Amino acid sequence: IPVFYANTVLLNVSNLPFRLQKLKEMFISKFGSAPKFYARAPGRVNLIGEHIDYCGYAVLPMAIEQDILIAVEPVQTQVVQLANINSSYLDFSTSVNNIQINKTKPQWHNYFLCGLKGIQEHFGLNNPTGMNCLLDGTIPPSSGLSSSSALVCCAGLVTLRANGKTLSKVELAEICTKSERYIGTEGGGMDQSISFLAEEGTAKLIEFSPLRATDVRLPSGATFVIANSCVEMNKAATSHYNIRVMECRLATKLLSKSKGLEWRKMLRLHDVQTKLGVSLEEMLTIVEEVLHPEPYSAEEICKCLGISLEELRSQILSQNMQDVSTFKLYQRAKHVYSEAARVLEFQKICSEAPANALQLLGELMKQSHISCREMYECSCPELDRLVDICLQFGAIGSRLTGAGWGGCTVSMVPTDKLNIFLKNVKKAYYQTDGQRLAVENNSLFATKPGRGALVFVEA
Questions:
Q1: Residue 457, pLDDT above cutoff 90
Q2: Is 91 a catalytic residue?
Q3: pLDDT of 114-125, one tens digit each?
Q4: Taken in order 417, 420, 423, 428, is the CA torsion positive or negative?
Q5: Which helix (H) or strand (E) holds 446?
Q6: What torsion, rounded to 10 degrees, do the Cα atoms 160, 35, 78, 168 define?
Q7: Fewest beta carbons less than 10 Å away: which of 3, 216, 228, 249?
Q8: Which pLDDT belongs to residue 5?
Q9: Catalytic annotation, pick one of 53, 67, 136, 191
Q10: 86-96: per-residue pLDDT in tens?
Q11: 447 bridge partner residues
Q12: pTM of the predicted structure, to 2 decimals
């Protein structure tokens, strides 16, 4: 696996893209000296496989053009100064020897600190290099396109380079996955993995334990279109996401206990399938047999596991889950096992490329959205309406993408119908609402697989 320096791109100043040149000029104006290097980490769109990475299952994302770009100057003082070209994000500075990440206020600089701290702790850096950093982001925030993880990844890359260290892309992805949890989000690793492992022109099947990425060539004749519902959802600012993680963990425990497995050691729904040595379809049958659709109380979970409420709270529930009174285990497990099967089917169709591939893939995307809406309950009225509009105006398949509860949809549209599709969706969703109309130009766009994180240095 190549270290990230294998992707270093040498650029002449005269040939720097406009955005990079503008960032350099603003950096000089801000800090009084020129940046020594730049780092870029892309956002991503997940084509299928929602809320299953933290359960141990493969997902199928691709990197997008929108990204986080950071200009960097290592400095002698052990201080990190952060600035953003977007004036709504306030400047921040801190000692590199005293990194404090505030979980209660997921502000932009805390995501940078996650990546910084992750690299520092991995290498045990006692006197890490200080840095001046200026950031430019083009990923719509809280949109389900992984702006926060891209910032964590870019910060990790920046810290690695500034301190003269090297890691493989896989190692970087795994470190940044762990370090984003400093802000309180129990993510599974998809966002960080695709940010580092993405390659231009191909989506990726991302598998875990061990982390690996396989090319998935998307069929010709269709274009993927991202549409922002304009409902913002910050994973770290709400409990929706972490409650789902915990419900999956509890479902894992109950399924394991019912099958005589060592349930205390079991953390992910994938572990249950692996231990039992059965198919995903058989796991769905087991869910029907073992779990009931009615919500479980904490007391009922304790009875099923043969433990006290105190043990549940201290040994299984995370600190921010102590006050949750009911858990939907049947629905969450049903979604995870069925969605995991849809991912594998999606990859298989792309690989075999039958004549009706687009229709088959579109059907999987529709099924995924229905499951997200009804079983995982991570959609919202605006996302559902946007999916319906996209399907009405010619999308072969459409679904929410990202954590949900807001953010974006991804739709597969016949390329020859793309322009009329974009025109109709704009009219039906954005131009009927003044607030959406104001951000319309950045909210609906076609995309194709982009490349992963890079370091740029001037020749």
A1: no
A2: no
A3: 999 999 999 999
A4: negative
A5: strand 444-447
A6: 0
A7: 3
A8: 35
A9: 191
A10: 999 999 999 99
A11: 224
A12: 0.91
